[in-house]
């Protein structure tokens, strides 16, 4: 269950069945968030280009409005962009986002690079989503072209399929 619609040339995007690269970033409150702290839960890692931009706001507000669907699937959402924790906090407050926004600010885009979704030419993350299972293994990947929103229904489908394969 993987679909990579677009990835930069010569960039490695971790694939299905591989361990998710570990990371620790600050959330919008300045608190450290480590991927491995979520072992035992599914994690939906959502890379987005920039806070306050139109498509990103639409996508993240759709997640906000449907957060119960993630919780029902034993999933935590971690949204990541290259914005600072200060921008992330202002954005989360303005849009009433009820999940962690993580700042991949410095070194600039380092986590996005690890996941193969950093566009060095524009200095931003591409729209990449990675669903990671309870053991830290990547089970779903999608990278959308610039300007194309991700389909929320695909997240639900991937999480439902994942639930069928977990104890």
Automatic annotation (TrEMBL):
Catalysed conversion reaction: [mycoredoxin]-L-dithiol + a hydroperoxide = [mycoredoxin]-L-disulfide + an alcohol + H2O
Flavoprotein among keywords: no
Annotated Thioredoxin domain residues: 14-164
Alphabetical keyword list: Antioxidant, Oxidoreductase, Peroxidase, Redox-active center
Function: Thiol-specific peroxidase that catalyzes the reduction of hydrogen peroxide and organic hydroperoxides to water and alcohols, respectively. Plays a role in cell protection against oxidative stress by detoxifying peroxides. May represent an important antioxidant defense against cytotoxic peroxides, especially peroxynitrite, which can be formed by activated macrophages during infection.
Protein name: Alkyl hydroperoxide reductase E
UniProt organism field: Paenarthrobacter nitroguajacolicus
Active site per UniProt: 56
Keyword field contains DNA-binding: no
Subunit structure: Homodimer. Forms both dimers and octamers; a tightly-associated dimer and a ring-like octamer.
């Amino acid at each position: 269950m993987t679909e990579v619609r677009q990835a930069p040339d010569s960039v490695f995007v971790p694939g299905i069945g591989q361990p998710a690269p570990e990371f620790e970033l600050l959330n919008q409150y300045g608190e450290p968030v480590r991927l491995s702290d979520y072992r035992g839960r599914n994690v939906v890692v959502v890379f987005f280009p920039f806070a306050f931009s139109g498509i990103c706001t639409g996508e993240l507000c759709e997640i906000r409005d449907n957060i119960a669907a993630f919780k029902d699937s034993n999933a935590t959402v971690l949204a990541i962009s290259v914005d600072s924790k200060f921008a992330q906090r202002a954005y989360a407050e303005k849009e009433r986002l009820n999940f962690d926004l993580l700042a991949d600010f410095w070194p600039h885009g380092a986590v996005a690079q690890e996941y193969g979704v950093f566009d060095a030419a524009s200095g931003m993350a591409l729209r990449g989503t990675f669903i990671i299972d309870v053991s830290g293994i990547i089970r779903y990947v999608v990278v959308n072209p610039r300007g194309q929103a991700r389909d929320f229904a695909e997240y639900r489908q991937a999480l439902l399929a994942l639930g069928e394969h977990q104890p």
